[in-house]
Specification:
Layout: H1 14-17, H2 44-51, H3 56-65, H4 78-86, H5 92-95
This protein binds iron/sulfur cluster.
Iron/sulfur cluster binds near residues 26, 35 and 49.
Length: about 100
């Protein structure tokens, strides 16, 4: 599944400032298709790659800090990062 190594990240804009975690990024070896799939497509393969990536924590931190809305970052999908940003679900009892 992991293809020919490359020095480019599949993430537009990130390569210009080149955070250090990109040196560990497994996605740089696979291309963007796994990480930015068509709407409604599975992100399972991207998440599996992320699980083996040593840059995962820093990648997720970067995505949250920069409000990245699209694609898989740090092993989390767009919806998973949105839930993480919003925090735990609130119940009526929490608001009382
Ligand atoms: S955690 Fe995933 S998206 Fe982030 S750098 Fe690693 S492989 Fe890429």
């Amino acid at each position: 599944m992991i293809g020919k190594p490359t020095t480019q990240t599949p993430y537009p804009g990130v390569s210009e400032s080149r955070p250090s975690w990109l040196d560990l990024a497994l996605c740089a070896q696979t291309g963007s298709a796994f990480f930015f799939p068509e709407p409604g497509s599975s992100v399972r393969e991207a998440k599996q790659i992320c699980l083996a990536c040593e840059g995962r924590a820093a990648c997720l931190e970067y995505a949250l800090a920069n409000d990245e809305r699209f694609g898989v970052w740090g092993g989390l999908s767009e919806k998973e990062r949105e839930r993480l940003r919003k925090g735990p679900a609130r119940t009526p009892a929490d608001r009382a």
